[in-house]
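Q: Here's a chain of 504 amino acids. Please give me its 3D structure as tokens.
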Amino acid sequence: MNRATPKAPGTATGAAWPSASRPAVAWPLVIPAALVQALVLTLGSWGYGYHRDELYFRMLPPAWGYVDQPPLVPFLARTLAGLVDEAWALRVPATVVTALSVVLVALISRELGGGRGAQALAAWGYAFSALPLMLGHLLLTSTLDQFFWLAVVLAVLRALRGGERWWAVAGATAGVASYSRLLVAVLGAALAIGLLALGPRAVFRRRWLWVGASLALLVALPNLVYQATHGWPQLAMGAALSENNAGEVRALALPLLLVMLGPGLVAVWGIGLGWLLRRAQRPRVGFLAAAFGVLVAFTLVSGAQPHYPVHLLAVVYAAGCVPVAAWLARRVWWRRAAFAGVALNCLFAIVLALPVVPAGSLGRTPVPDVGPLVPDQVGWPAYVAQISDVYRSLPAGRRAVVITSNYGEAGAVARFGRALGLPAPLSGHNALYDTAQPPADTDTVVLVGGQVRGVAGLFGSCTVRDRLDNGLGVDNEEQGLPIAVCTGPVAPWHELWPRFRHLD
């Protein structure tokens, strides 16, 4: 009489592989990587200055949501600025979640079968690569995404091992992530498409997956209600980004993938992509490679922002650490070469992401051209001083306001302008359009930035008085833009103000 073949643990739930095959966590190798990275990011929080997005976040009023983003990051920035209004204080959450993301990358490598060597390579290689150092240095929406997205992927992998209740963890995490960026819905769709395409498809018949999906919707519900009752502004924002950025995004998206972890790690995540799709792994974890491909395709088709796939790039890197570490374990000299490569990649990433080049020398280096977040951290106090000089030159008795063309300029005036006698700034950019508009009796505007040419015809006179100059030779978005004094509005402000509105 034939006996039924016993099922491996977890196969009844559609698990990808038995839990017994999972290696131990190499905590003595992983935790130091996260702590050292946290120390480096803490030290790097001083130097240069606020990023334009940080200046924007700290000035947004309390709300359930905004036209260009959900409420979580502005809430953090506003709260921390109320305690200590310095750039380094805003970056404390960024440091914490980025250090946690190092642990998550190592744990993902472990879930994929990586032992001590793979986890060490995942933790140390990722901790000091360009992506986490750039995002961990600043409080951006993408900064929180790196933690949330990795946590969702880890929970999904744990669920596929047979711990079905991890679907609830994945769903709850995705729901919370929606308060940082609604882009987490694209991650969920990408993972679902990957599972449908490459399996294991049995998970779609399991109750706990749908419990997790329902929990994600429940947690995100207030965020979704805000969007629905305000005409889905995130869709309008996405369309505006695509209209303004599509050509540049499609040109940059693929090259950006080569830079985001640094050139020293391209081979590792490239191997990881192939390893996930090998016949032995594909039925279990190939969905991760498919999901990465879906995100790349979404980025190219939408044309909104070039960085959407970068957090799954970290997952693909974690996968690559498994075969690479196994191969290096048997080759001493190659292991030493790999160590040297990771070290060189670390130096590249630190220069690219952190304020190690003195601000006075920055304009004479290629760093502002290569490091996409660096230029927007310099020059803000100098710009505001110039705006103040123009404002103070106005004749006494003028009913004047300051209108900026973008949220970075507005945030800088809000942060540094009060000490120089400037009024609270106004702007038609993104969410700032809805916060305030010029009083009805305003007869003079100090108009800053790229909108000067487009709205000059709304005034009887508009004269350029100065041009923004950071004094560092750094060619950022503001450098060289005009500061104009415009008088004699040609119509009431309730008619003129909509002409200043723009999404981008």
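Q: Can you summarize the key feature?
A: Residues 1-16 have pLDDT under 50 and may be disordered.
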